[in-house]
Design a protein that fits this description.
There is one protein chain. The chain is α/β, with parallel strands linked by helices and about 325 residues long. The protein has 13 helices and 11 strands. It has a 5-stranded mixed sheet. Helix 2 packs antiparallel against helix 10. It starts with a helix and ends with a helix. About 5% of the residues have low confidence. Bound molecules: beta-D-glucopyranuronic acid. Beta-D-glucopyranuronic acid binds next to loops.
């Protein structure tokens, strides 16, 4: 090989390496998910990652970390907000303390049903919520179904008086502590990963969640009754750090968004089936599930929660009215 040729070869190799460099400049994103195998969100997040890889031809890669191994939900949210983790499957409950508009969905009994919640999210109120989140650095790409949350304790709950004096674990959000206090209970905010042990040792008397979470992390093994209060219907999202998403080319943005939307449709279909299955399984394991004949006393007890909240956040009144007036 003469000198000139080897210089040429070197130049070509450098050019190739640089080209290769472009390919290796692919986005490698880390995704947080609190759930484990057997939960609809875990399957949906896996599908999302596969679809992003396939449709962007590997230009965006998503590595999903299940089981909350990247940290608690409030910590992971903060990390996504600052861009230390790129995305996650989040519940809007713990987003409320960071994004005022997102707290709309954490008002007890604000939605009539899950379909009503989705109609609100897909309308004008949803746009305001999504913009507030994006401005805070947590951009929602698609919405997941998380059903309704109900109480589980060592006895049946039929009226707010049954909650009186009980220590109930809630997610991290002042609206939930006010909600439990307004029923006469003692709220105990706590990370999801600590709830089973707290129920087992009697550190708390109860908690509240949907059937898949109640089942999947074994809360049903350490309680006896699940009472269908359905006091909260909180959506979840695939949410991405706003700047990272906006730094993608328009084509990649479209592909990532489409993958999230497809994964969300899949999640909702899985939810429909698996939340029913979770209920059947916990009942088979001995959990007594009770309907609450009259939920009005629970709703009435929330008047003070709404009053205090709107007194502190008068600018949220418009959004609350918008949600309530959505058919
Ligand atoms: C589950 C949500 C999860 C929450 C958990 C909780 O999917 O995001 O962390 O409830 O209660 O239903 O903390």
């Amino acid at each position: 090989m003469n000198g000139r040729f080897s210089r040429l070869a070197l130049g070509a190799a450098t050019a190739l390496a640089l080209l290769g460099g472009t390919a290796s400049a692919a986005e490698n994103w880390r995704a947080w998910n609190i759930h484990t195998d057997g939960h609809p969100n875990t399957s949906a997040m896996d599908l999302f990652a596969e679809m992003v890889d396939a449709t962007t031809d590997g230009e965006v890669k998503v590595d999903v970390f299940h089981g909350g191994v990247l940290g608690s939900q409030p910590d992971a949210l903060e990390q996504v907000r600052i861009g230390a983790i790129e995305l996650g499957n989040f519940n809007l409950g713990p987003i409320g303390p960071m994004v005022k508009e997102a707290n709309l969905v954490s008002l007890p009994f604000i939605f009539k049903s899950v379909p009503h919640m989705f109609r609100v999210l897909e309308g004008e109120a949803g746009e305001v919520v999504a913009k507030g989140m994006a401005d805070a650095g947590i951009l929602p790409l698609a919405w997941f179904d998380a059903g309704a949350r109900s109480f589980y304790t060592q006895k049946a709950i039929n009226t707010p008086a049954d909650v009186e004096g009980l220590k109930i674990r809630v997610m991290n959000n002042n609206l939930y502590t006010s909600m439990i206090s307004a029923m006469g209970g003692n709220p105990s905010p706590m990370a999801f990963s600590e709830v089973q042990q707290a129920l087992k040792t009697g550190v708390v008397d109860g908690a509240e969640n949907n059937f898949p979470s109640f089942k999947n992390v074994g809360h049903y093994e350490v309680t006896t009754h699940y009472s269908l209060s359905e006091h909260l219907i909180i959506p979840e999202c695939i949410c991405v750090n706003t700047k990272k998403f906006e730094a993608l080319s328009p084509t990649l943005q479209k592909q990532v968004r489409a993958a999230a939307k497809a994964a969300a449709l899949y999640q909702r279909a899985l939810w429909e089936v698996q939340s029913g299955q979770a209920r059947t399984e916990v009942e088979a394991a001995g959990i007594k599930v009770n309907e609450i004949a009259d939920k009005a006393p629970f709703q009435d007890a929330m008047d003070s929660v709404y009053e205090d909240y709107l007194a502190e956040n008068p600018d949220m009144k418009k959004l609350v009215d918008l949600a309530k007036s959505t058919k």
